[in-house]
Amino acid sequence: MTVTAEPFSVRMDVRVYEIDPQLHLNGGFYVQYADHARYACVQAAGVSVEDLVRGGLGPVNLETVIKYHHELRGGDQVDVTCEWEWGGGKTYRVRHAFRRADGTVAAEVAHVSGLLDLEARRLVADPREAWRARASRPELLGLD
Q: What secondary structure, in 3-state letters, does 125-141 show?
């Protein structure tokens, strides 16, 4: 399994309309923040999601797990990392750490993902190579 040495990260602001009645970030937004970080990582790696889809492939999440550690509240800034882990099968993992400005880990989001062949409606056999072939900076995707 290969893991990136220094994960990609994007800073986001917790907006007031994203908080719930307990005054912390609503759980659904953790998944949206993770999706945003992953999309930004893919773009930074030089992959055009539009070209990927036009080429008949679509990234899919098959499982998502959220672990909450500390609150994120309206007005907080959070850095969301994106680390890719590759095995030998049709799936791969993407892990996100949510760090407050002081470095405290507020949450972790982990996905089991794959690349869907949009015509066959099946996962591609080797998603690692499909991503590598499209990336100008494959190291951001954990690909050496």
A: CCHHHHHHHHCCCHHHH
